[in-house]
Amino acid sequence: AAMLDLNQAYKLEELLNAATDEEANEGWVPRTHVVGDVKRLVKKSQALVSRSYDILMERMACDDSRGRLLALEVCHVLMLRSKAFRDLVVENLSMFLELTNGTKRRGRGLPRPQDAAGRLRERSREVLREWAAKYGTYYKSLAHAQRYADSQSAGVASREEDHPAEGGATAANQRELHDQVLQILVDLPDF
Prior knowledge:
- The protein is mainly alpha-helical.
- 75% of the residues lie in helices and 0% in strands.
- Helix 6 packs parallel to helix 8 and helix 8 runs antiparallel to helix 9.
């Protein structure tokens, strides 16, 4: 049975790499049949759910926003189907926010291409909104994360439109606010 688990883990990694490969997937969504295979495989064990989370977080840290966007789409599918996956995402929600929304803290903006980075931020807000609506009763931090992502997006847009030449003090205040919100998310008790 241990050999079977290793084979399943290897197959899962192959599938997730295929689902998040920028070159193999057209547009902003992974191929449906690959995601279906991932869903069927992770149903088999808690260990595979955990491994899928680890692989997807690695892919979300890649240097291409298209890969991050594809990983977000797979995360979304698994989040809607697995309590164990939800627990893992919520446990590390600040990292998820940083990887999908980018921060200027320690120079961590979203990687290029810019159109994919913008779509990643937008899609992140959409899925956080959906997750908060479906699971916010059980995971209070999802609603906080969704509000944070929405306010961060609104803050960036209003600064760019209203004050294109400004940035110094406003950016410092934004970073400080961001750090405070992330700390609140980390410190939130589970309900």
